[in-house]
Write a structure and sequence with these properties.
By secondary structure, the chain is of the alpha+beta class. Among the domains are: about 30 residues; about 90 residues, Orthogonal Bundle (Muramoyl-pentapeptide Carboxypeptidase, domain 1), CATH 1.10.101. About 40% of the residues lie in helices and about 10% in strands. It starts with 8 loop residues before the first helix and ends with a strand.
Length: about 375
């Protein structure tokens, strides 16, 4: 096809079209640069961390550092030069190249920490807590209470915390009665006897039986009990186990949405055989209306009916789902009027003996009452002293 000037207009048109399509193809092939990932300091799941690039993982750890340090753990910017130095020495002994000044938790210390956490198969977030200290055998004392075995105990099992407390209140490091105070060390209640050795004996007058039957040394309360503020509410707890509990609550909520509320930590109570773990400030109860203390480990028909109707604030749990995607409300509505429901933590986290919520708390040093051999106490968590 030719125009009046003798030029091939068809060729010119096809040539224009070819160039236009080529330009469009080039533009379409250009992938936009990925937006830089932003981190707010909120906790990411283990799966989300595993999917991050090394660069993003460092950014996440830096954003998370203030929260880590506030929980009595150690990360970027921590002011405890002595403990940071111990971390650096352990990392360097393992072959890490750290350029940060001694006692300064900077970027190279952070990168080495993350690498060591990955190699150890633990959560790699650059936050040095009890799990990292144990895995890397970092000789830091007093950050968290020492856990001791159950059964028979001797003076060699006493933690530094226990020795210091015992000397102050009883006048002897072993925690034997003294200075006018009876000692929880003489208790015959065996299941939490280890708390005497990890947190120290409790100085008291009166009786361990019942609620508030004993008068505790007010100095002990002032020195050891602090208020924790978590997404599951505010409560008083022993300061030496506070950070591990806060970490457990945060991780469990991130994965399961639980716990949601608490009904108290520190309270003076026990039996004639000895104090409850609550008296040490080493026990806490969560979401009690849907995780009752029971012989069969289930909600009674009365409590099941209450949860179905949303009584006592239980409607807050209705939208929580089990691994199959069924909501708690759908499950409850499917039960007969006289049927008993499984506890909420079992519905959401899995069966007794293999429960995800219980495993998270256990990892942080806390035992779930749902793992008791006899009666199940699904609301209760206690420090494994």
């Amino acid at each position: 096809m030719w125009d009046k000037k003798g030029e091939d207009t068809s060729y010119k048109w096809f040539d224009y079209l070819k160039k236009k399509l080529l330009c469009e193809a080039i533009e379409q092939s250009k992938e936009p640069a990925p937006a830089a990932k932003e981190f707010t300091g909120a906790r990411e799941s283990d799966e989300a961390l595993a999917a991050l690039s090394d660069e993003d993982l460092v950014k996440y750890a830096i954003s998370r550092a203030p929260k880590c340090n506030s929980m009595n753990f150690i990360s970027v910017g921590n002011k405890n030069a002595k403990n940071v130095k111990l971390i650096q020495q352990q990392l360097q002994a393992a072959g890490a190249n750290i350029a940060d000044p001694e006692g300064t938790f900077g970027q190279t210390t952070l990168i080495a920490t993350i690498a060591a956490q990955k190699q150890s198969g633990i959560r790699a977030d650059g936050c040095v807590g009890s799990e990292t200290i144990a895995a890397l055998k970092i000789p830091i004392k007093g950050m968290v209470a020492k856990q001791v075995r159950r059964g028979k105990f001797s003076s060699k099992d006493l933690s530094e915390i226990a020795r210091t407390n015992n000397e102050k209140y009883f006048g002897n490091p072993g925690g034997n009665p003294g200075n006018g105070w009876q000692s929880s060390l003489t208790s015959v209640r065996r299941y939490n006897r280890g708390l005497n050795f990890s947190l120290g004996a409790i100085p008291y007058q009166g009786t361990t039986a019942g609620r508030r039957g004993a008068k505790l040394d007010p100095r002990w309360i002032k020195d050891n009990i602090e208020r924790a503020r978590t997404a599951a509410g505010s409560f008083r707890i022993n300061k030496h186990v506070k950070s591990s509990l806060e970490a457990a609550v945060e991780e469990s909520r991130a994965q399961f949405g639980l716990p949601m509320r608490n009904v108290g930590g520190f309270v003076v109570k026990g039996t004639e055989k000895g104090f409850s773990s609550h008296t040490w400030g080493a026990g806490i109860d969560f979401d009690h209306w849907v995780n009752p203390f029971s012989r069969g480990g289930v909600l009674s028909p009365r409590l099941t009916s209450n949860a179905r109707k949303g009584g006592k604030g239980t409607d807050r749990y209705w939208d929580l789902k089990n691994p199959s995607g069924q909501t708690w409300k759908q499950y409850l509505d499917g039960l007969g009027p006289d049927e008993s429901a499984m506890p909420l933590y079992v519905f959401v986290g899995g069966p007794y003996g293999d429960n995800g919520i219980g495993k998270i708390f256990n990892k942080h040093g806390w035992k779930w009452g749902g793992d008791y051999r006899g009666k199940k106490d699904g609301m209760h968590f206690e420090y494994l002293g």
